[in-house]
Amino acid sequence: MRKVDVADIAVAIAELSMDANYNLGEDVLKSLNEALKAEVSPVGKNILVQLIDNARIARDNQVPICQDTGYAVIFVELGQDVHLVGGDLYEAINQGVRKGYGEGYLRKSIVADPINRINTKDNTPAVIHIDIVPGDKVKLIMAPKGGGSENMSAVKMLTPSDGAKGVIDFIVNAVSDAGSNPCPPIVVGVGIGGTLEKAALLAKKALLRELGQSNKDSFYSAMEKEILEKVNNLGVGPQGFGGRATALAVHIETYPAHIASMPVAVNINCHAARHKERII
Amino acid sequence: MKVKKISAPLRDEDVMQLKAGDNVLISGVIYTGRDAAHKKIFDLVQSGEPLPVDFAGQMIYYVGPSPAKPSEIIGSAGPTTSGRMDAYTPMLLELGLKVCIGKGSRSQAVRDALVKHKAVYLASTGGAAALLAKTVKRADLVAYSELGPEAVYRLEVEDFPATVVNDVYGKDLYEEGRKKYEITNLKEVD
Ligand code: SF4
Q: Which fold does the domain B4-189 belong to in CATH?
């Protein structure tokens, strides 16, 4: 058993919180530049130039790309040969979020109760997903999620007879209804199969995939392409002002389904598609 | 592309020059305010008490910035979703507010009130928060410090970029822009 001190995990989470919020991924920047080249709307072009400039300013000055520095969503891939020492893993992760959001001048956007809404003032608790995997490493992924785009997400229990067309229509409609609200151009994460919560989690995980990579299964990579074309034909465009670049990418993840069900979840991310990872 | 420069205070004639889809650069004074401040101002108006700001001819920006680093004037400061302010906006337009700035579409009631009171709704780029913060040259607290990032600030900006969404002629850029670039099976555009 390899020992890993949870204090090291806390430090890593604090650093990843700042890194993710200040430094937009190279894959997203590349994709924004490609969208700029392809954009036909002058207003849309102007927006894409602003977004690319904005990412550079945030990186140069080490300030948040967006003032909504998000809900701290943390994925942990915990090697089964790791022995965690030094305390409670969940508390260590929250400690890391507290430190990162405090020292990094990130906005605190979490309320302790969904109805009575008192701010926790340190952006905790995080939403934490843990998978046990083979090996003796701990992989941490920090993915801050903005409220504007999260609110435009959707999930539906389709029936098997709805087929591929039903799935595609549901996803395209979700993007169409979202319009300008999720700060397009967006990234569309899709989970198909499993149960209600499995589909939602797959949709969230789909957002972690590097832009430019498609599903390994040729059936689903073709579906990703088809949906991307359809949503970009909606005309929503950058910021919803009209244009080609409504979405930068569509990522589908799937799981086996029950003979009676076909759950589909759509998790929408804004152009501030933030996530950073580290292996300990 | 044509860019129009505007500064507060604005008169009806100034606002009538702005058309849906225009790019504008704002310099001068903008007040900040989002959900909680709107609610407080609404309550003051209801009870007939004096307001912290005279909104006649002014602009309001729906923003809740991230905390400023010690070396900064303001933290990252992009727009928040305007729809949450819809219930309060007609009242502010009645008080003479000329420009509101946020992101996302407005209710029909707000769009009607913009036409009626000769005012415009602009969108600044959602998520371009670091870029927008750089245009802020000064930030002074005006009211409601207890609201933290939701307090009302008087900002002085230079060339703050925004796009006209709803103009005094009843046009809406979200609807028109989308229609213009939509590709259906029957028609191809551009
Ligand atoms: S949707 Fe994204 S870019 Fe837009 S305000 Fe929220 S976090 Fe920022």
A: fumarase (3.20.130)
